């Protein structure tokens, strides 16, 4: 028997745009321990700066192709000639600073891996190794930053990462399950509590 999708309680930010609903129902808030997925979200979230997440989701496949399926080892080696090609690629955000930041961040990402064994080990250290579970109720505003995102953004900046301030870092932490910001009455709130 098919369930009526409109009767399912979801976080209100995802309603009205089918790609948002799919993203919310399958990815957002799921704890991530895979370095390549972390890198994907770092690229996408830094590309989002000043834009909507809907814009980025629409261009996600373009990014996947242009950025070697988010293989940070390959992205770290992108030459300037490829940056110039990417600036002509309408399937991504054609912003030279953001493109160069992604390449820079791939290099910094690998430095973090060398120091901590994995980027996942490093980033999860900022929440004590387990998801921080918030208790948001319908109608309450979502936080844009947290003490953890402030600390992480400051440390990333110190390590040379670009386009990753506290707000973008907080979005990364939400997306990759370091912080569970599903509303308490959202059907995903309990599902992603690991």
Please explain how this structure is put together.
It is built from 11 helices and 2 strands; from the N terminus they run ααααααααβααβα. It is an all-alpha fold and 194 residues long. It has one domain (12-191): Hypothetical protein, domain 2 (Endonuclease III, domain 1), CATH 1.10.340. A two-stranded parallel sheet has the order 1-2. It comes from Algoriphagus aquatilis.
Write the layout of secondary structure elements.
Blueprint: H1 18-26, H2 35-48, H3 53-58, H4 60-66, H5 72-75, H6 80-86, H7 96-116, H8 119-124, E1 132-133, H9 147-158, H10 166-175, E2 179-180, H11 187-191
Parallel strand pairs: 1-2
Strand coverage percent: under 5%
Architecture in CATH? Orthogonal Bundle
The count of domains is: 1
The gyration radius over C-alpha positions equals: 17 Å
Report helical residue fraction: 40-55%
The biggest beta sheet is recorded as: 2 strands, parallel
Average pLDDT for all residues: 94
Give unreliable regions as ranges.
Answer: none
Summarize the entry for a quick read.
The chain has 194 residues and is mainly α. Helix content is 52%, strand content 2%.
From the structure above, extract its key features.
194 residues, two-stranded parallel sheet, single chain, globular, Endonuclease III, domain 1, 52% helix, mainly alpha
């Amino acid at each position: 028997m098919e369930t009526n999708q409109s009767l399912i309680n979801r976080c209100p930010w995802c309603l009205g745009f089918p790609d948002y609903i799919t993203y919310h129902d399958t990815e957002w808030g799921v704890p991530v321990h895979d370095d390549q997925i972390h890198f994907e979200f770092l690229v996408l979230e830094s590309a989002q700066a000043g834009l909507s997440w809907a814009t980025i989701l629409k261009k996600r496949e373009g990014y996947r192709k242009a950025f070697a399926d988010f293989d940070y080892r390959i992205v770290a080696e992108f030459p300037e000639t490829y940056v110039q090609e990417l600036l002509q690629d309408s399937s991504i955000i054609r912003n030279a600073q953001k493109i160069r930041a992604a390449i820079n961040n791939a290099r910094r990402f690998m430095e973090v891996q060398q120091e901590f064994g994995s980027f996942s080990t490093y980033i999860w250290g900022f929440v004590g190794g387990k998801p921080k579970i918030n208790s948001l109720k319908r109608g309450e505003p979502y936080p844009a930053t947290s003490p953890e995102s402030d600390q992480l953004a400051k440390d990333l900046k110190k390590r040379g990462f670009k386009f990753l301030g506290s707000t973008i870092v907080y979005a990364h932490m939400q997306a990759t399950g370091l912080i569970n910001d599903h509303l308490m009455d959202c059907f995903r709130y309990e599902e992603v509590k690991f």
